[in-house]
Amino acid sequence: MFWQHFFNNGFGLYANYTRNSTNQANVELDGKKVGESPLIGSSKYQWNFSAFYEDDLFSVRASYNKRGPSVGSYVASWQTNYYTAAYDQIDVNASYDLTDSLVLSASVINLTKSETYIHLGNDTDARFIQNAYSGRRFYLGATYRF
Fold this sequence. Notes:
The protein is an all-beta fold. It is about 0% helix and about 65% strand. It has no helices and 13 strands.
């Protein structure tokens, strides 16, 4: 599902939602279904929302992104899968047309300093395996058009 709206004053909103109902894969043996397994890399939902402002010289956008828990690889010795917990973050981007040819831009990625958490199993006794933090990242740029 997708929605976008521009207001007459330069402001706007954007939203996107994806629902994945195919997060189970059939397990077959000799052409007969013998069970189901989570589909590796799948997540039941993912959505994002952005608010922005744009005019002839300036634009700014703040975006919130969220992905539901996802299934990782199967661990035979534990007879279960790795799972990545739900993840969300906020990003901000801006640009300014200094001249007709020169545009300055800046971005902050992962403003919220979000981390990824991975655990073994998807029940209440799930065991923590690892977390990862890619950091809050800042970008500055200039584009010159010939």
